[in-house]
Amino acid sequence: xxxxxxxxxxxxxxxxxxxxxxxxxxxxxxxxxxxxxxxxxxxxxxxxxxxxxxxxxxxxxxxxxxxxxxxxxxxxxxxxxxxxxxxxxxxxxxxxxxxxxxxxxxxxxxxxxxxxxxxxxxxxxxxxxxxxxxxxxxxxxxxxxxxxxxxxxxxxx
Length: 157
Prior knowledge:
5-stranded antiparallel β-sheet; globular; disordered N terminus
């Protein structure tokens, strides 16, 4: 993982995507902003304990909770093709920094490779893991679930 930062308290980009991938990301965001937006379906939610969470991230959240890695915020984003108005452009999960969380973040960055953007906010002491590309929200959620399962299995050994 690489580290990019401007100021000590600013958000730090930890993952190391190539310049070409950053250019592709910028073009996708520009194209999304210019595209006509029509809603096709609502975002799905499920209850996890007493919290409403996005259904697409529910399986990953269950595994993370089981291995005692709490999340602060998360959003599956839903596809921009389903609901271009009520969604996050990128799916993401936010974790408070701790030894266990840092182990998971490093594992996730290696497991998910260029598909995950990993940032750290020193002022809040938290990590954000998000889909790197627009339109990859559901695949991010599925990959995050597989990543959490793999980390849980590795932790049992």
